[in-house]
Amino acid sequence: MSTPAPFDFVVTGATVVSHDDRRQQDIAVRDGRIAAVGEQLATDGVRTVDATGLLLLPGLVDMHVHLREPGMTEKEDFASGTRAAAAGGVTTVVDMPNTKPPVATAERFRQKLDLVRDKAYVDFGLYGMLDHDNDAEIAGMAELGAMGFKLFMGQTTGDNRCPNDAAIFRGLEAAAAADLVVGVHAENDHLLRMFGDRLRASGRKDPRAHLEGRPAFVEVEAVTRIVTMATEAGTKLHIHHLSTAVGLQRVLDLRAQGHQVTIETLVAHLFLDDEAYATHGNLIKLNPPIRPAGDVEALWAGIARGDVDIIATDHAPHTAAEQAEQDVWKAYGGFIGVETMLPLLLTAAAAGKLTVEDIVRLCSYQPARRWKMADKGRIAAGFDADFVLVDPTAASVLDAATLHSKHNVSPYHGWPLEGAVLATYLRGQLIFEKGDVIGAPAGRQVVPVRAPHVIAQ
Ligand code: NCD
Ligand code: ZN
Fold first, then answer.
1. Contacts of 31 (CB under 8 A, 6+ apart)
2. Is 98 in the pocket of ligand 1 (CB under 6 A)?
3. Which residues are CB-contacts of 3 (< 8 A; sequence separation ≥ 6)?
């Protein structure tokens, strides 16, 4: 009797990049997990994948996507959005709750799980919403595996109403009791509406009016208020898409005073500045807006210092017709990005703006740790075998027509790239190779590890 091979397959010769180093190593996979990492692993009788000359990264964890189910599937759905993720080396996405209807009750959370669970090509977590009156629903959503709760302090896509401060505080308390993160869209809604009304009354309709209607202090005010409240409520707080130099400085000041908060910057806020309004118009309308170059530089400096915790995409699809809307007040905020994040960041790495280790830290390791995804974000024995094979030297030009979203309109079309995603593996299964998404949807729900005393209640 022959003994069964100890591994399902071994990837040989790759340079394995982690959040803090890189080494040439083999990785062995068994039953969807990484079984061993080491130099020259025994491969007798075992299938091998030769990855000599390539980088092997843990699959990216994109903390901020809008896959539009339920209610807006003309823009994107779980199948198309997660196919795009697979093609972009993203093996886990966390989907936002600003759908129609919003995911703001346990019942809606359960319905959403039923709706999406068989359609996902990558693993997924779901956020619930922190609504204007739903603190009593937070525990129920937590029981169903909510990754955290999204709080929209400023108006954006969807039917959600921005909660007042009392409602926010009750929601923060409920999230703290559930030991889950609250992720916030930090813009002051009253001020946004006032500035928007003024600009509309003055007859402005051009794309730049969106930037002028959302000045930086609107972000600073919301950041200060929510950090103050979250500290008081004892809530784990994350600020999504922080976009300004002064907003970043305020976070640093608050941290210096002892407040604990993690921050995210978007790929879009790192790669586009306000000059892009002239070229792309309302396609790049985004909440918070694409900012002047000084803000973009400040965010890159924050990354270089280690002050930024996470990079995400805010993959926010709309139809091609909606993206072509000329009137800024009728246009939607957001555009696709889950498939272009890694190629753009690899290109930035080739230009020396950050390292590939930084990419792993910001887009995989830290999101997995912050949201307590026990099996994600590392290439180490016992972790899920989610990984990406990357050719760091492949030169190409980004062609939006090849993207996998329902509407593949991208401001990055035509951009030169250095570095390409060759293959993506999800729990040991090849799900993307050389331009094609492979196999049936095999994504599973990812749930966070919560403190035992919370779950026992
Ligand atoms: C997002 C969307 O369209 O869902 N839009 C955006 O401009 N960022 C919502 C959001 O994250 O605010
Ligand atoms: Zn937002």
1. 8, 428
2. yes
3. none
pLDDT digits (tens, 9 = 90+) for 16-52: 999 999 999 999 999 999 999 999 998 889 999 999 9
**Rounded CA Rg of the chain:** 21
Query: Do residues 209 and 199 make contact, with C-beta atoms less than 8 angstroms apart?
Result: yes
- Helical (H) or strand (E) element with 390: strand 387-397
Q: Which domains are present in the chain?
A: 59-370 (3.20.20.140)
Cα gap 337→270, rounded to integer Å: 12
Is the pLDDT at 455 greater than 80, yes or no? no
Q: Is the pLDDT of residue 457 over 70?
A: no
Residue 51's nearest CA partner among 31, 32, 25 is 25
Q: Is the CB of 283 under 6 A from ligand 1?
A: no
- How far apart CA 108 and CA 119 sit, in angstroms, is 18
Given a cut of 90, whether residue 149 has pLDDT beyond it is yes
What are the tokens at 399?
A: 């062609």
Interatomic CA distance for residues 387 and 330, integer angstroms: 40
Considering every ligand atom, which ligand is closest to the CA of 98?
1
Atom of ligand 1 nearest to the CA of 240: 11
Residue nearest atom 4 of ligand 1, based on CA coordinates: 157
Q: What is the pLDDT of residues 367-382, one digit of tens each?
A: 999 999 999 999 999 9
Using CB atoms within 10 Å of the CB of residue 123, give its burial: 0 to 12 exposed, 13 to 18 middle, 19+ buried: buried
The number of the ligand 1 atom at minimal distance from the alpha carbon of 64 is 11
The residues whose Cβ lies within 5 A of ligand 2, an ion, are 185
Q: Which two structure tokens, joined as six digits, stand for 6?
A: 């100890």
Cα of first residue to Cα of last residue in the chain, in angstroms, is 51
333 lines ligand 1 (CB under 6 A): yes
Å from CA of 287 to ligand 2 middle: 6
Give Cα separations from 37 to 46, 54, 100, 177, 359 (angstroms). Answer: 15, 16, 44, 38, 21
**Spatial CA neighbour of 212 closest among 292, 325, 152:** 292
Q: Nearest 10 degrees: CA dihedral of 244, 310, 19, 28?
A: -150
